[in-house]
Amino acid sequence: MKFAEFEVEDIRQADAIFSGSVLSYEIVSSSNPGTLEDYGLIKVRVEESLKGDIAGDVQLYWWNSTFGMPEELNLTDPALFAVVAPGENSLPLRGSSATIFPSRRPDLLQVFQAPCAGAFMLPYASGSAENVRRILQGESIDLYDNLVPRTGPVLQTIPATHRVEHTFDASMAYGAIGLSAILVSVFLIWRRWRRMNESADQLE
User: How far are the Cα atoms of 15, 118, 120, 130, 135 from residue 51, in angstroms, in the given order?
Assistant: First the structure.
């Protein structure tokens, strides 16, 4: 797998940017956990909105590109988040990052992330807010020297909880319907055969 470069200027395409504390992290699986069908739900308590109008507690949808869902998040408290609204701005594409899958939760804001690149869930420090505003105004800044501190951020570990979400299996449903139709047909044929035999007995 070829990784796509993380471009901090992509944050300009986000619908909302904010700092906040992670309250919970849940991995939701289909009937086959541990695959790329898994997605994450991250509940964040917003502290400061830098773009958009986000406040209070917000639930975020996160599909970690082609990397799979990690068992824990390691972020500062608060952390910096960039998100997109379903049906609004698209996620960026660069190089081999040529596939974007539709959101499994179109009712939720989605963590901003180019396919095969890192997610915009970044450490947050003093000066981060001002540097985000500089990026939004068109300036180019070095990611680590000006936005994310190279050393010293204290990370908190947020372990994931797990939930299996049983989905409708159309093939199994249609198979069950087909089997039911066969059984009904067999029963009707048997009942007709029995009535014919009963009529023949009465004629004798």
Answer: 7, 20, 14, 12, 12
Residue 110 token pair: 């989605």
Q: Which helix H or strand E contains 17, and what residues bound it?
A: strand 16-29
pTM of the model: 0.75
Query: Per this entry, what is the length of the chain?
Result: 204
Residue 59 burial by Cβ neighbours in a 10 Å radius (0-12, 13-18, 19+): middle
Reading the block at residue 101, the tokens are 């899958």
Which DSSP letter does residue 39 get? E
Nearest alpha carbon to residue 82 among 118, 119, 47, 129: 119
DSSP designation for 8: G
**Residue 121 to residue 128: CA distance in whole angstroms:** 13
pLDDT tens column, 70-90:
999 999 999 999 999 987 556
DSSP bridge pairs for 61: 41, 110
Helices and strands, counts by H and E, the chain: 2, 9
* Tokens standing for residue 108: 């939720």
